[in-house]
Specification:
The protein is mostly helical. Helices cover 57% and strands 9% of the residues.
Length: 741
């Protein structure tokens, strides 16, 4: 019979390659004869199963492996592949450092941006990814060159760059000595107007056999010939002669060189730099950025007599030169995967936004150049790349450290993005005597809880369900997260329920239109209130007790999953090696570099959080936006954008278990770590923060947790269940939007 029990995680080398495989397997989903004792699934059994690269085997394949899927189903004492693969998840890790990073995601639940902390081997990358990092110097057969993206290049960049080249050519012709560069500008004007399918060559000084590499063609190795020292020196001199422009000093002795560097090159460098910057910011047009960058750094600094532009039709003629540039497409939508020193291109592009937000926020204190709304938006957007760098630094440090160091770093900096803003806002509200800051913080905490319980799992189910008809997850591990969520919500809102049970209902601005004492009264403001003695003698001790029990419960949960019940999250790191593969790991960020970047990003995060809290007051006072709505949407969900991206990516890979863990782990951390830390900070530095939430926060959170547990009961999901979660989340957000300020 088939039964469910535990979740086991193991590492192994992928057959035929140098990759580690992180396997997440439900060990209880094994088949045994009736009456036989339950035996845990050994790692050797896991390793004998066929691997799946970054995806789960479909449920239909699993059902086909078993003849029947009933409770009396028997597989004669062997592990049933169908039952095993229904909850088997495998993630590829190229090396042990990456495997350690993935293991930390399960240990601590901090799933920041899904990035590699090591450099992936070039031979293991796909052809699409290899093309992203090409230098635009590989000749291939492009097919049709008249495409929408190429035509869009002409409309956005090509016409004005070509026009500028013609103007510079006219200037060069006027100077007489710059005529060679004028002719070059005329040729480059035609090239940059429509560069697709054309090749820019750097001619060799001494003609020799060309070694141009075509796309998809294997270049034969040069035959071994016996050489002498004299022959070797001669070949070396020929190579130097061929590669140096006009043999060194002759290039700088020409008057045309100085005329070009003074009148032509600076204007073209500015134009190409501007086009390269715009194309880089758009990401999908990075080939255009490379095209213009190559002109600044290489093409425009080569003597005109060494440059030659050939159309693709003449490529059958032997080439006596080096291919400098050849481009076939203006856009590539796979550039969202592009990284620079391990940093995603979007995080690189958003980094200047941090500088602009900080300079504008602290230099323009009187709002002469930008309003408070602009500074608020810039500061919020600056949090996105900073959260990326903090997450990348945490992953790099923990992946290169032992368990203790990884636990300390994750526990200390895992929630630093949210806590920095919360503490800064509470301090600002305490200094101004404005209670709206405290309400904004409580709304942001509640919004994070609602988003992680409803929106992140819901949107992951919807997008993943569009690709996969039905997705399954391990109900055992989900049950642990659900239990922690119930404890979290019950503990956080216990003081609120206590105050409503023992507080007094006070109504203000009441009128009686009947002029009769027994008639009905109409009141404009009714709320629960309590005396100072009741708060200090009963409610405040309850808050402190809850804030001690919640972190203790979180620690007990870690001990349960990592020590006493290791069959739920059992981590094994394989040390096997595959012959013929290099195991040298190139780490993007060393430990010290990651520590420095972590400190710098944390300081910048604190500065941005201070700007957000400083410029939020004018927004609340000058607009009709409720502080409830602003807190539960913008301030709560912007720091969680990395988790939303992670959840969607995992769902598309049919790893819905990881998508659900992303939201659950953050929600548990909010209630069991972040809120107790805020209460502790308020006890040390009085800012007036307590655990008395409004009715809307209370019932929205309780209903959301109950709904989530109801959806997750059967261990499977589809896009309809995800739609239910998203619609409920939007309904609650509408309630916050229409809530009175």
């Amino acid at each position: 019979m088939c039964d469910r029990g535990y979740l086991r995680i193991g590492y192994k080398r992928r057959s035929g390659g140098g990759e580690f495989v992180l396997q997440v397997v439900s060990g209880g989903n094994t088949c045994r004869p009736a009456g036989s004792p339950h035996q845990p699934l050994a790692m050797s059994e896991i390793e004998q199963e066929p691997e799946l690269a970054v995806r789960r085997r479909s449920t239909q394949d699993a059902l086909m492996s078993c003849s029947t899927m009933t409770q009396n189903h028997s597989c004669e004492g062997i592990t049933c592949p169908g039952c095993l693969m229904m909850t088997k998840t495998m993630l590829l890790a190229e090396n042990e450092v990456e495997a350690h990073k993935l293991a930390n995601n399960y240990k601590f639940g901090f799933k920041k941006w899904k990035s590699h902390v090591t450099e992936r081997p070039w031979e293991d990358r796909s052809a699409i990814v290899k093309e992203l990092y090409s230098d635009l110097n590989i000749i291939k057969h492009p097919g049709s060159l008249i495409t929408c993206d190429n035509v869009l290049y002409v409309l956005l960049f090509g016409w004005w760059i070509a026009l500028l080249y013609l103007l510079i050519a006219l200037i060069m012709f006027v100077t007489i000595v710059g005529i060679p560069y004028g002719k070059l500008c005329c040729s480059l004007a035609g090239y940059y107007f429509w560069p697709f399918g054309k090749v820019i060559l750097k001619l060799f000084m001494n003609r020799r056999k060309s070694s141009v590499r075509f796309y998809g063609e294997n270049v034969p190795e040069a035959p071994n010939v016996e050489t002498t020292a004299l022959l070797g020196d001669a070949e070396k001199d020929e190579h130097i002669l061929a590669e140096t422009p006009t043999t060194g000093m002759n290039y700088w002795r020409c008057p045309s060189t100085y005329v070009w560097l003074l009148l032509g090159y600076p204007l073209l460098a500015i134009a190409h730099g501007l086009a390269s910057f715009i194309a880089w910011i758009l990401v999908v047009t990075i080939p255009i950025a490379k095209l213009n960058g190559r002109a600044i750094t290489n093409i425009l600094l080569i003597p005109p007599e060494q440059l030659q532009i050939r159309p693709f039709k003449r490529m059958d003629v032997p080439l006596d030169g080096e291919v400098l540039l050849c481009c076939y497409r203006a856009m590539n939508f796979y550039y969202y995967k592009y990284t620079v020193v391990g940093i995603n291109v979007f995080a690189v592009n958003l980094l200047p936004l941090v500088v602009v937000a900080l300079v504008l926020g602290y230099a323009d204190t009187e709002n002469k150049y930008a309003s408070s709304l602009v500074k608020f938006v810039l500061s919020i957007l600056a949090i996105i790349p900073l959260s990326y760098y903090i997450g990348m630094a945490i992953a790099s440090i923990s992946a290169q450290s032992n368990f203790a160091v990884g636990a300390v770093v994750n526990a200390t900096f895992g929630s630093i993005t949210e806590l920095t803003f919360y503490i800064t806002a509470l301090i600002k509200g305490s200094h101004k005597g404005n209670k709206s800051y405290e309400e904004v913080v409580k709304s942001a905490l509640t919004g994070t809880l609602l988003g992680c319980v409803l929106f992140i799992p819901g949107i992951s189910m919807v997008i993943g369900g569009c690709k996969h008809r039905e997705q399954r997850f391990n109900s055992r591990s989900a049950g642990i997260s659900s239990a922690l969520l119930f404890i979290s919500v019950g503990g956080v809102f216990a003081p609120t329920l206590f105050s409503k049970a023992y507080g007094n209902l006070i109504c203000q601005d009441c009128t009686n239109s009947t002029q009769n004492d027994s008639g009905a009264f109409q009141c404009n403001d009714c709320h629960f209130s309590m005396s100072n003695s009741l708060f200090h003698s009963h409610v405040q001790p309850l808050i402190h007790t809850v804030c001690i029990l919640l972190p203790a419960s979180y620690v007990i949960g870690l001990i349960f999953s990592l020590k006493t019940h290791t069959h739920i999250y059992d981590i094994h790191i394989s040390d096997c090696h595959v012959p013929g593969h290099s195991h040298n790991v190139v780490i993007h960020w060393s430990r010290w570099r990651a520590v420095v970047l972590l400190v710098v990003a944390t300081v910048c995060m604190s500065a941005c959080a201070e700007l957000v809290s400083e410029h939020i007051d004018p927004i609340l006072s000058s607009t009709a936006i409720s502080p409830y709505f602003l807190g539960v949407t913008v301030l709560a969900m912007v720091p969680e954008l990395p988790e939303i991206v992670n959840g969607i990516q995992f769902a598309l890979q049919n790893n819905i278990s990881l998508s659900l863990e992303v939201g659950s782990s953050i929600a548990v951390q909010v209630c069991m770590l972040q809120i107790p830390i805020l209460v502790l900070f308020s006890a040390i530095y009085p800012v007036g923060f307590n655990l008395l939430f409004s009715d809307l926060h209370l019932w929205a959170s309780i209903f959301s947790v109950i709904l989530m547990n109801y959806i997750f009961m059967d261990g499977k999901c589809d896009y309809f269940q995800g739609t239910v979660l998203v619609v409920v989340y939007l309904i609650i957000m509408a309630m916050y939007y229409f809530a009175p300020s």
